[in-house]
Amino acid sequence: MHDPATSVDTTRFVELKGGAYPVRIEYQWLNRDRADAPIALFLHEGLGSIALWKGWPQMLCDRLNCRGLVYSRPGYGRSTPRRSEDKWPVEFLHVQAHDVLPALLDALKINAAERARMWLIGHSDGGTIALLYASAFPDSLAGLAIMAPHVFVEPMTVEGIEKARNTYETTSFREKLQTYHDDVDSAFYGWNDAWLNPAFLHWDITKEITSIRRPLLAIQGYDDEYASMLQLDSIKAAVDHTQLVKLEQCRHSPHRDAADAVNDAISAFMQAHRA
């Protein structure tokens, strides 16, 4: 295992053009010196960032013998904040999967051969973005491992996000979250307003993901406060080759609540599919 002090790259920035306005993306390489190793690309949750992943991506990359790439999406971390007048559309996850992620790969000069060996590892909204990317670009990845993804909206999802808003506005949660974002309101309300948009109740990508061809591992905890196992079962129904892992005593963040089980599952899954 590499010394973390030498494995973790400094945080870097790259500008993406072509959208409504240019955005600066913060990103970080892990195990950058392993130039011939496949890339494990990490897609954070709806309130996440590079910093909020903490040490887990490095731990997993060391175990997988991969290079790692982590980044904060626009509106999060130290990336360009969402403008206060901008409301993210119902399709905001599609925008991230179809436009922002490919633009980032282009900007970082990750070529077609490297993308074909690339593994996507996503949590929550990041898991959904991984699914949407894999369905739109079915040959531009090696496979994906996702945790607590959403493919449609359940009543408990809306209830959980409404509760999060109340917690954000009435407790010290905003102050704690501010540690991980330059503009914490940009991060929180971008995510929260989008999910609580009444039009989002009809959002459903179960038919869209049927085009996924690459290996797919989906992980969720039985105690997830934002979704039921209907999410994983619907993914399996849409993509028959999906491998499911359902964890006891685990809430919405399996990599924190059940790190050993998650690391074991992802490691075994990728080893089985890496030729």
TrEMBL record:
Gene3D superfamilies from the xrefs?
alpha/beta hydrolase (3.40.50.1820)
Query: Which residues does the UniProt record annotate as the domain AB hydrolase-1?
Result: 41-265
SUPFAM superfamilies tied to this protein: alpha/beta-Hydrolases
Q: Please give the GO cellular component terms listed in this UniProt entry.
A: membrane
InterPro entries assigned to the protein according to its UniProt record, in alphabetical order: AB_hydrolase_1, AB_hydrolase_fold, AB_hydrolase_sf
Pfam families noted in UniProt = Abhydrolase_6 (PF12697)
What PANTHER family has UniProt attached to this entry?
Answer: HYDROLASE, PUTATIVE (AFU_ORTHOLOGUE AFUA_2G14860)-RELATED, MONOACYLGLYCEROL LIPASE
Give the protein's recorded name: Lactonase
Organism of origin is Caballeronia pedi
